[in-house]
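Batch job 17 of 40 flagged for manual review because the log was empty.
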Amino acid sequence: MTGATLRIEHREPVFRCSGKFVAGDATAADFTFEIRSQWDGDVLVNEMHVDTHGPAFTMTWRYELLDGGGRLRATEQIRGGGRDQDNVWEFTRRSPQSTQSTQSL
């Protein structure tokens, strides 16, 4: 990934997320979803079970604020569907409306 933007709106317990991930000059992913979330200490967690358009899988996201809210760490875990994977994404705040990412593994 060469860049990403992520916008999160959280109004307990509804979590709405829009994102765009870019690889080179092409959009690798562009999405919006709304889901219920819950707290695990200071970490906001949501989990999606997907069983349409192919093999079923579960995607879990854990969101935590770092550096006094200046950074967001989003930990992604995918299980099932033949593609178990773990990713950690870190987003640095650009402005109150948007953030930019740097990926860490």
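Reviewer: the log was empty due to a logging misconfiguration, but the result itself is present. The chain has one domain: 3-104. Unflagging and moving on to job 18.
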